[in-house]
Amino acid sequence: MKHNFFSAALLSIPFVAGTAISQQDERPNIIVVIADDLGTNELSCYGGQNLQTTNIDRLAKEGILLTNNYASTAMSVPVRASMYTGLYPARHGSYQNHKKTNTDVKSITHYMPLAGYRIARTGKDHPGGQPQVYNFEKIPGFTVGCTALKAPYTTDGIEKFMSNSKDPFCLFVCSIHPHAPWSWGNPSEFDPDKVVLPPNCVDNKQIRELFCHYLAEIRALDNEVGSVYAALEKVGKLDNTLFIFLGEQGPRLPFGKWTAYRYGQHSAFIARYPQKIKAGTTSDAIVQYEDIMPTLLEFAGGEKIKDIDGISCLPVLFGKKKEHRQWAYGIHNNIPEGRAYPIRSIQDKRYKLIMNLKSEVDYHEKHLMDPNAKEKVWDSFLQTAETDEFALFLVNHYTKRPAIEFYDLKKDPWELNNLAGEKKYFKRIQNMKAELFKWMEQQGDTGADMDIPQK
Question: How many angstroms separate the Cα of 65 from the Cα of each of 68, 155, 222, 316, 438?
């Protein structure tokens, strides 16, 4: 059965398992739905004003919403490698986009079967092509290629998988929304004149019209979440399943994807499991994608894995702990997405430190800033900057970065006011730099030396 952007689900006759149910393992299941290049700020449960993300909001109302989940790197392959392995990028090896994971690394596909779980994936298959590291059972139904112009989907494959599995399952549903090109969904739902643009975005007609296409793909993503929810209900496994929604990294817009700014690193994390998670709760505990794998493994009853970077945040989800991490770390290596531009970052709940390790050159990203790019986002920024002072500020802020950036996230969540030069923050900056260097040393992160062409 096919689904599209205007139909969330057409449910058929419920599956009847008969005597097979008594033979199935009744331990709880796991489903993780992950977006692709989502600006978490657009979700209405995170304060978004442009659309009501009804299905994602429902998960938040029925579970817990985390406000401080961060991608350690704002690129799909590295952050998903971290999600699956529990390791930061320097250690799992995929520290540049599309760089292969080290072959001796183990992932969730090794650990979950040891706990008695089937491990499967449908949709986007990053990282892929390394079955010795990522040996997912492949389930059909969701579009795989993230640059596809059309993205029809069906839940038939996951319903069959969930219904027929005698073992508990851990299933990743990997959407391609809202990854560019923003060519799927119904942009006419949105009025360009009424769209609320992010504070770090140039405001002009072209951007407003393009933003409607971006929002249409977020609507498509929300419909997919609703369809997965309905599929779980249909097979009778909704309340016996830990349902997690993740936002991945930020969008293909300036200050989003391919940066260490909050717009790129901040990510949605919502979890529903009514037996253990109190409905309608919120946590501001700091969590990172490296924590996903050990969290799922602990939930499944698996043995704790030594020598990984991730820390299970299950006690946070279950309301047993209020805090999780002191720091969230970030790493960006720009090759092959542009010229070398290594960046490292560290933050707590209040302050963010960014170190641009090659600040003597301008930042450049080949997809977003390509003059032949279909979306013309950067061209639009440049054209408006010719006559608009704030647009010129944004262009310079994005391309001409100082060695040190320091932001007060409480007062300046969009990181537009660099406080690095203010004396009152000198000691705090030095302390955070020391913590960042300590982390880099522990990771074997050699900084600028890592941002070189791949072998």
Answer: 9, 25, 16, 11, 31
Note whether 279 and 153 are within 8 A (CB).
no
Instruction: Report which of 133, 157, 288, 294 is spatially closest to residue 227, judged by C-alpha positions.
Output: 157
- Asked if 320 and 350 sit in the same domain, the reply is no
CATH no. for residue 186? 3.40.720.10
Domain region containing 46: 26-325
pTM of the model: 0.94
What pLDDT, on a 0 to 100 scale, did the predictor assign at position 395? Answer: 98
At 131-179, the pLDDT tens digits run: 999 999 999 999 999 999 999 999 999 999 999 999 999 999 999 999 9
**Does any domain span residue 19?**
no
Query: Do 348 and 279 reside in the same domain of the chain?
Result: no
**267 strand-pairing partners:** 69
Location of structure tokens 């609507």:
219
In SS3 terms, the chain reads as CCEECCECCCCCCCCCCCCHHHHCCCCCEEEEEECCCCCHHHCHHHCCCCCCCHHHHHHHHHCEEEEEEECCCCCHHHHHHHHHHCCCHHHHCCCCCCCCCCCCCCCHHHHHHHCCCEEEEEECCCCCCCCCCCCCEECCCCCCCCCCCCCCECCHHHHHHHHHCCCCEEEEEECCCCCCCCCCCCHHHCCCCCCCCCCCCCCCHHHHHHHHHHHHHHHHHHHHHHHHHHHHHHCCCHHHEEEEEECCCCCCCCCCCCCCCHHHHEEEEEEECCCCCCCCEEEEEEEEHHHHHHHHHHHHCCCCCCCCCCCCCHHHHCCCCCCCECCEEEEECCCCCCCCCCEEEEECCCEEEEEECCCCCCCCCCCCCCCCCCCCHHHHHHHHHCCCHHHHHHHHHHHCCCCEEEEECCCCCCCCCCCCCCHHHHHHHHHHHHHHHHHHHHHCCCHHHHCCCCC
318 and 340 fall within a common domain: no
- The angle that helices 205-234 and 377-385 make with each other, rounded to 10 degrees, is 150
Residue 389 tokens read as 């002072």
Q: Is residue 201 domain-resident? A: yes
Q: Are 36 and 108 members of one domain?
A: yes
For residues 441 and 398, membership in a common domain is answered with yes
At which of 276, 302, 325 does a domain end? 325
Region 32-47: what's the mean pLDDT?
98
Angle, helix 205-234 to helix 54-62, in steps of 10 degrees: 50
